[in-house]
Amino acid sequence: MVKITDENRCAWARGDELMATYHDEEWGVPCRDNRKLFEAIVLDAAQAGLSWRTVLYKRENYRKAFDGFDATKIARYTDQRIEKLLVNPGIIRNRLKVESARTNARAYLQLQKECGSLADYLWGWVEGRPVQNTWEKMEQLPATSPLSDALSKDLKNRGFKFVGSTIVYAMMQAVGLVNDHVKSCPRHRAVKSMAARR
After folding, report:
1. What are the CB-based long-range contacts (under 8 Å, 24+) for 82-88?
2. In the chain, helix, strand, coil percent, each to 5?
3. DSSP H/E element including 75
4. Distance between CA 32 and CA 118 in Å, rounded?
């Protein structure tokens, strides 16, 4: 196994310990845990217009503020609870983004009734197998894809907010629906082998 170093990991995760750990242990790993998938939707919505680093450094605060991303609890948030969240310095205090977490929790619960689970729904878009990309350079990574365009449109039709194609593609990368580690990164092969074992 090739050791991961700051020189050979994907360029976006270099020079920052938390980002490097996230890259080395989480990013691109196929995830089928419904709560973690819902967390990814909420956090990638919070990222809109910002860097992932900003959100990652606030992730633990989000987990505390949003009841561990328990969608059933979030769906019941009152307007008063939303106002309380909007003065929490540990999260991104954007009203539309905070309110979207409640909206998306409600849409998520409805989706579960229709599709069985969020995992079944999301993985159905890739027929249960991650898309294995083979980018040589970071500059080749797209911001969107035809798949993220279609998934974004369907999520919007189901009532989700802050699920534009760019946000959806970032979520797909994070939860392993696509393997977007560059080929020279040791995690590319590692993540690919995880998908093969499932």
Report:
1. 88/61
2. 60, 0, 40
3. helix 71-75
4. 8
- Domains of the chain, by residue range, sit at 11-197
Judge contact between 64 and 101, C-beta under 8 A: no
pLDDT per residue over 139-180, tens digit each? 999 999 999 999 999 999 999 999 999 999 999 999 999 999
What average pLDDT does this structure show over 17-24? 97
For domain 11-197, give the CATH number: 1.10.340.30
Report the distance separating Cα 44 and Cα 168, nearest Å.
8
Which DSSP string do the residues of 122-189 spell out, in sequence order?
HHHTTTTS-EE---SSGGG--S--HHHHHHHHHHHHTT-SS--HHHHHHHHHHTTSEE-S-TTSHHHH
- What is the rounded CA–CA span in Å between residue 130 and residue 125? 10
Q: Which residue has the tokens 């900003």?
A: 54
90 vs 155: CA distance, rounded Å: 28
User: Strands 178-179 and 131-132, how do they pair?
Assistant: parallel
Any idea what DSSP says for residue 78?
Answer: -
The pTM score is: 0.95
Which pLDDT score is estimated for 194?
87
Encode 17-33: b = buried (16+ Cβ within 10 Å), e = exposed: eebbebbbeebbbbbbe
Paired tokens of 80: 């008063």
> Within 10 A of 75 (CB to CB), how many other CB atoms are there?
17
